[in-house]
Design a protein that fits this description.
six-stranded parallel β-sheet; binds nicotinamide-adenine-dinucleotide; single chain; binds (2S)-2-hydroxybutanedioic acid; tricarboxylic acid cycle; Malate_DH_AS; alpha/beta; Malate dehydrogenase; Rossmann fold
Amino acid sequence: MTVSPITVCVTGAAGQISYSLLSMLAAGNVFGPEQPVALHLLEIPPALPALAGVVMELLDGAYPLLHAVTQTADPSVAFADADIAVLVGAFPRRAGMERKDLLEKNLPIFKRQAHALNEHASKHVKVVVVGNPANTNAMVLAAFAPDIPPANISALTRLDHNRTRAQVAARLDVPVQSVAGVCIWGNHSSTQYPDITRATVDNAPVFDKLGSFETVARDFIPTIQKRGAAVIKARGFSSAMSAASAIADHLRSWVCGDEHVVSMAVPSDGSYGIKEGVFFSFPVRCMGDGVVEIVKGIEIDEFSKRYIDATAEELYAEREEALALLE
Ligand code: NAD
Ligand code: LMR
């Protein structure tokens, strides 16, 4: 049986993250070894020559699943009939900046792209926002793309989720695949709450082995919250290889389903007291075909509640700031 190609639009396609991501999409590492992919690559005009070089490399990769590649600076072409949109294109954070410092620069990009997505993408398009501040950019996108169901829009916190699993594995000297039960609550920012209170290794709880509440608050949590800044300081650029890998994980879980609970920033439905109107990272189950359910009924202890409340407050404030900026 011939499988029809899936159309995947990637914005910021000549940038660092895309340079790692595009080969994964073309090689079948995201949607599986039977699924052909048509890539629609969007850039700003000054970056089109660099994008042409990336496209040469994609063709030189001779990927059997790469059905077609379109390169353009026109969002209406890039988003045309897109089944999946990966919104990476934005200014990255530099050393000393907080992600919210990017609000003013990046929000207008997402407002403009919302209109184009709304007009030109498939009505079932699934969108993952990567460009920072990712949660608030996703909120803006949902606000200005009224025909796309908000449930089809998400923001990436899988990188934080993967960082959390990797740190648990490193600290306990166990294989990363044995670690489960972690999740990220809230904003993809330094207020995010990497929750290891229910972490398991081979299904056995391990929180006690990772320290006391005091040491976890002093060491483990800030390590994850500040990991993006640590990579920027060390590399001079923001994380790209690990971000691309997390995007691949996010899309694979979302489209193909996942037996494990993962983390995604999705529109809040009021769960855990988080007000509607913000994109909040929750522990979620991906049921396949784009169906995502927030995991309900987790008992939130006082320790976790303080963190969850703080990151929610940051997102409410970012929302107000964003809406005022865009008025
Ligand atoms: P980069 O500067 O290497 O690439 C960004 C690309 O986007 C550039 O090529 C630029 O020309 C392009 N671009 C800018 N405006 C555009 C527009 N309007 N339309 C299309 N393309 C546009 O940056 P990068 O390292 O690839 O990071 C991209 C974004 O992802 C940054 O905002 C960064 O902070 C963010 N990021 C998010 C996560 C996450 O986990 N959510 C992780 C890492 C990086
Ligand atoms: C990250 O988490 O590595 C990215 O969001 C880059 C950043 O700005 O920290």
